[in-house]
Amino acid sequence: MRLLLLATLLFPVSAAEPLRLAIAGLTHGHAAGFLRNAQGKDVVIAGIYDPDPALHKSYASRFHLDPAIFYTDLNVMLDKVKPEAVAAFSSTYDHPVIVEAAARRRLPVMMEKPLAVSMDHASRIQRAAREAGIPVVVNYETTWYRSHAAIWKYIKAQSSFGPIRKMVAMDGHEGPREIGVGPEFFSWLTDPVKNGAGALFDFGCYGANLMTWLMDNQRPLAVTAVTRQFKPSIYPKVDDEANVLVEYPGAIGIIQGSWNWPYSRKDFEVYAQKGYANAIGGNTLRLRRPEDKVEQTPALDPLPADESDSVSYLTAVARGRLKPTGLSSLENNLIVTEILEAARESARTHRSIRLAQH
């Protein structure tokens, strides 16, 4: 290990060598899926930080990882393993601390959605990234959906559809307890401080992300939200149902984030002036073009290799082949945070929140 670290310091990292990646936090349940995906990529997990030694043992056993790469101190881990990039799987509340630590070492960072629990936290992330000149990537499962790339292809790239008038995002599942998330994930996901809210932040962020993307990073005029606690015995501190109306000058967005769907879903409908494109999950698109007599279900193109999943994308960003744009970008997700914060305030005060226009 010492020889490997010495060689890394003495010689520049070649693009042909595996990406040296550090994991910051294991309390987010998506860490397991990311590690499974990374094992099939040209990536070396150089170090893993989490303050809980019990999670170290669990992940080392599940993924056959060397216990020596686990650390209980983030800064010690980053300094010892000298990674090329950091992937964060902590609570949303802890994102600024991780980004600031990475920024001090000029390391690119990817984090699980959403970006932040508040605009104050989002501003800390933005400031750290700007001062250090590092890229920040926000990872959503839906970014890697072929159906969403096809929506852009048909609705945005083809002018025949006309302007977008309505977008409807339906995201969620039966509930964290109901689908059996781990206790380390459940404890912060149902904490209004560490998660920002309940289903509103957990699943409302998907629709806000997609709508901001299709609106070319246009900030909305106003946000109105209604949240509910249909299962207070399970989720006493946070909402489990959220419905958000997002107003744009020429369009509206309807976000439905829920821990009450009878089954998991991530569907997205876009209605333009002369047609529509509705994504059913990641692999199906229902399309009605201006020239169509009936609804179509076109074959979907594969995504470019560097943009096909989160591990490939982070590798491409760390190696300088890509800059974070669109759904993954900090610019998009600052607006997402603004929408979510306004929605939380709207639900609390029972009034629409108008966003100041810069």
Order of the strands making up the biggest sheet: 13-12-11-7-10-9-8-14
Compute the average pLDDT: 95
Form type: globular
Multimeric state: single chain
Low-confidence stretches: 1-12
Strand tally is: 14
Q: Tell me what the CATH architecture of the largest domain is.
A: 2-Layer Sandwich
CATH top level of the largest domain is: Alpha Beta
Looking at the structure, the CATH topology of the largest domain is Dihydrodipicolinate Reductase, domain 2
- The span between the termini is 52 Å
Please estimate the helix content: 25-40%
CATH superfamily of the largest domain: Dihydrodipicolinate Reductase, domain 2
Number of domains: 2
Question: Which structural class is indicated by helix and strand composition?
Answer: alpha/beta
The largest β sheet comes out as: 8 strands, mixed
Percent of residues in β-strands: 15-25%
What is the ordering of alpha helices and beta strands?
HEHEHEHEHEHEHEHHHEEEEEEHHE
Rg from Cα: 21 Å
Number of helices: 12
